[in-house]
Design a protein that fits this description.
15 strands, binds coenzyme A, 2-enoyl-CoA Hydratase, Chain A, domain 1, seven-stranded mixed sheet, 17% strand, 3 domains, alpha/beta, 21 helices, eight-stranded mixed sheet
Length: 535
């Protein structure tokens, strides 16, 4: 493959200014991340530790193989919601390696609101299970939760994708032959009792873990029976009398060791084979991405400048370089894995959509994972383009993205606006993972465009009544819409609601892709199969 050559002068004022602005954005993100991932208040953490318990992230750290990375998902879930009172949505999820098995780990954080579930907690738990299903990954549930956050029951209990879906998923995972292990490290109440009860094996910690469908206060209210938590559903009860749990552990560390022992005996799966090469570092320093990542979205960034700071040896075999130039497509290696990259370089025209469709077909046939690098304002609009059939060409790209049989990984490095989001494997197109850079923005269109559309609609209504829309009203509507889009379009707003799997530092993109591909190999890629492409 040929090596890409940069056209960027890293000593230029433009580069330095961009870097300075970007680092402000990145440092703000890092500061927020640091605070959020502390978990509950100092008092709550102290109380938790006094009980001899490790924190959720400490538990995970002890569970995974030493010196292996843990890819945490959606660490800023619920950020900015309920006054930031539910950091990380009170649950830690991610992909870690246990005795060589890429595994989904779901750990409640009992230092906040007893580890109870609000809407975002549910979404995060379900998303982690979805990653397990899609990639055939075993699951470990580190349970320490009072179940539903009761004031929010209407948002967490009754609907399809609410609390009950956890157990539906557990049954599906089990039927698919995917191992699931629970460690009951604290409370496991009401519906939550089904987490260990529906796992392959459950470990419970002495004088710490409890499992019951109804806790002591509920039992007293319902039947008048007075019973202690330990008598009702403690570790000894469940390992010696009820059989709801299988292994008795002395403490957190012991329970984690038992869980690791279980993994030691799991069979190794037959993996998808890829043509893997020795790893090469990019020729250009990935930290230079800070000077390139779009801060001012009005300036176009040549995505090759991003690609060369991400791929092995900065080598890229570009496909149709001179055709449909607003979508850059090509083959590369990332940490040795073969990838097909699609990256935006402007508005999508018919030619770019056709080129992307062709490229996705090639990757599907050759079984090469797809990487989408999004910085997209949408598909081209206007009379000539509609007449030329931009809708059917865009549809071909959307169709190819939806039906591609190979794993897709999406990174939003700039804007993600309009139907371009669909053609570039947005959340609705089930990429195996989707991450945002902290500068990224996502909305149906830019705030200024949305304001113009709504002002035009209002002006037409006024005109129909023979009147003119007052300037004051135009200005007020413009401000209202632009402020709203600015707020709702930010990476923080997106990640809080789990429209993505998290925000990452651009230099980590390469590692995240490698980890994503490694996990995806646990499920063999299907045969390529597309439906009708409208011609
Ligand atoms: N819904 C909402 N808030 C809850 C809650 C629930 N189910 N369970 C606990 N909380 C809150 C408490 O009000 C408290 O809030 P605060 O920090 O604002 O004061 C916080 O979580 C910690 O609770 P606390 O009881 O002080 O902590 P603990 O560690 O000693 O006990 C539990 C934690 C979960 C074991 C205990 O609170 C409990 O049994 N809760 C009820 C569980 C239940 O019956 N759930 C059924 C839901 S399906």
């Amino acid at each position: 493959m040929f090596t890409l050559e940069t056209k960027i002068n890293t000593n230029s004022d433009e580069f330095k200014k961009n870097k300075e602005e970007f680092l402000k954005i990145l440092n703000k993100y890092k500061e927020i991340h640091k605070n959020v991932t502390k978990g509950g208040s100092e008092k709550a953490i102290a109380k938790h530790k006094e009980r001899g318990k490790l924190l959720a992230r400490e538990r995970i750290d002890k569970l995974v193989d030493p010196n292996t990375p843990f890819l945490e998902l959606s660490s800023l879930a619920a950020y900015g919601i309920f006054d930031n009172g539910h950091p990380s949505a009170v649950i830690v999820t991610g992909i870690g390696v246990i005795h060589g098995h890429e595994t989904i780990i779901i750990a409640n954080d009992a230092t906040v609101k007893g580890g109870t579930y609000i809407k975002e907690t549910i979404k995060k738990h379900l998303r982690a299970q979805e990653v397990a299903i899609e990639n055939n990954l075993p699951c470990v549930y580190m349970v320490d939760s009072g179940g539903v956050f009761l004031p929010e029951q209407a948002n967490v209990f009754p609907d399809r994708d609410h609390f009950g879906r956890f157990f539906y998923n557990q049954a599906q995972l089990s039927a698919a032959g995917i191992p699931q292990i629970s460690i009951v490290m604290g409370s496991c109440t009401a519906g939550g009792a089904y987490v260990p009860a529906m796992s392959d094996e459950a470990i419970i910690i002495k004088k710490q873990g409890t499992i019951f469908l109804g806790g002591p206060p509920l039992v007293k209210a319902a039947t008048g029976e007075v019973v202690t938590p330990e008598e009702l559903g403690g570790a000894e009860v469940h390992t010696a009398i009820s059989g709801v749990a299988d292994h008795l552990a002395d403490n957190d560390i012991h329970s984690i060791q038992i869980c690791r022992n279980i993994f030691q005996n799991l069979e190794k799966k037959e993996k998808q084979i890829l043509n893997i090469s020795p790893i090469e570092e990019p020729l250009y320093d990935p930290e230079e991405l800070y000077g390139i990542a779009p801060v001012d979205f009005r300036k176009m960034v040549d995505p090759r400048e991003i690609i060369m700071r991400m791929v092995d040896g900065s080598k890229f075999h570009e496909f149709k370089e001179d055709y449909g130039k607003t979508l850059v497509c090509g083959f590369a290696k990332i940490m040795g894995y073969p990838v097909g990259i699609l990256a935006n370089n402007g508005v999508l025209f018919s030619e770019s959509a056709l080129k992307g469709t062709h490229f996705i077909e090639l990757c599907s046939i050759r079984k090469i994972p797809l990487i989408f690098l999004q910085n997209i304002t949408g598909f081209i609009i206007g009379k000539d383009f509609e007449r030329k059939g931009i809708a059917k060409d865009g549809a071909k790209l959307v169709h190819a993205v939806a039906n591609a049989n190979v794993p897709k990984f999406t990174f939003i490095f700039g804007g993600s606006f309009g139907a371009g989001n669909y053609g570039m494997a947005g959340r609705a197109y089930s990429p195996r993972l989707l991450f945002m850079w902290p500068n990224a923005k996502i909305s149906v269109m830019g705030g200024a465009q949305a304001a113009n559309v709504l002002i035009t609609v209002k002006q037409d209504q006024y005109k129909a009544k023979g009147k003119e829309m007052p300037q004051k009203e135009i200005d007020a509507l413009r401000k209202e819409i632009m402020d709203k889009y600015d707020f709702e379009g930010s990476a923080y707003y997106s990640t809080a609601r789990l429209w993505d799997d998290g925000i990452i530092d651009p230099v980590d993109t390469r590692k995240v892709i490698a980890m994503g591909i490694a996990m995806s190999l646990n499920k063999k890629f299907g045969e390529h199969k597309f439906g009708a492409f409208r011609m």
